[in-house]
């Protein structure tokens, strides 16, 4: 049973190409099938972490692959929905932040930084999953999913600030 959380993470990674293909084949970023895959990915994100903690089977693989799967899925959605004209260019700060986090991860983890997702980061991920799924199922010009997106965007910025402050406190000099 301990393998199930990692299997869910791997399944989420495997969903990304199908999601991308469905959005690219969609009508201007409007796709129920893509939204369903995206929603399933969001749900499995919650389930795999919950199961890993419940069964006490948290792994080094899961600590890296789980947030990476989320980042790749959300970043793909942001880029594709921006390309479809559903998100403004400033939304690309989400994938840019994620590239910076991935690039900086190796630099700080070897110097004592214990990377664990903070509450703002978890809440941002939930809001981004929800808002992007809603954008996929609503027509262009529907504003309310963007309100949720901007709330997630703000929390993602707050999470980044929290990670940077924590790194400043914890990272040993080189």
Question: What would you note in describing this structure?
Answer:
The chain has 174 residues and is an all-alpha fold. The chain has a single domain, classed as Four Helix Bundle (Hemerythrin (Met), subunit A). It is built from six helices and no strands. It has helices at residues 4-24, 32-54, 60-83, 93-109, 119-137, 144-170. α2 runs antiparallel to α3 (60-83). The longest helix has 27 residues, at 144-170. It is globular and about 50 Å long. The model has no long low-confidence stretch (mean pLDDT 91).
Shape: globular
* Tally of discrete structural domains: 1
Alpha-beta content class: mainly alpha
The biggest sheet amounts to: none
Q: For the residues shown, what is the average pLDDT?
A: 91
Q: If you compute it from the alpha carbons, what radius of gyration comes out, rounded to the nearest whole angstrom?
A: 16 Å
Helical content stands at over 70%
Q: Helix tally?
A: 6
- Any idea what the CATH architecture is? Up-down Bundle
Number of strands: 0
Segments where pLDDT lies below 50 for 5+ residues? none
CATH topology (level 3) name? Four Helix Bundle (Hemerythrin (Met), subunit A)
Topology as a string of helices (H) and strands (E):
HHHHHH
Strand content: under 5%
CATH class term: Mainly Alpha
């Amino acid at each position: 049973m301990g393998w199930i959380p990692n299997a869910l993470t791997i399944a989420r990674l495997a969903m990304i190409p199908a999601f991308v293909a469905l959005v690219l084949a969609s009508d201007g970023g409007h796709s129920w099938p893509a939204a369903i895959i995206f929603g399933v990915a969001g749900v499995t994100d919650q389930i795999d972490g919950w199961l890993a903690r419940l069964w006490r089977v948290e792994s080094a693989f899961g600590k890296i692959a789980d947030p990476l799967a989320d980042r790749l899925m959300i970043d793909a959605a942001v880029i594709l929905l921006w390309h479809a004209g559903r998100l403004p260019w400033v939304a690309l700060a989400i994938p840019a932040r994620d590239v910076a986090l991935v690039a900086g991860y190796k630099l700080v983890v070897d110097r004592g930084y214990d990377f664990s997702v903070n509450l703002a980061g978890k809440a941002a991920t939930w809001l981004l999953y929800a808002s992007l799924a809603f954008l996929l199922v609503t027509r262009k010009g529907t504003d309310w999913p963007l309100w949720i997106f901007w709330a997630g965007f703000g929390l993602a910025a707050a999470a980044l600030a929290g990670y940077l402050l924590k790194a400043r406190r914890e990272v040993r000099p080189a």
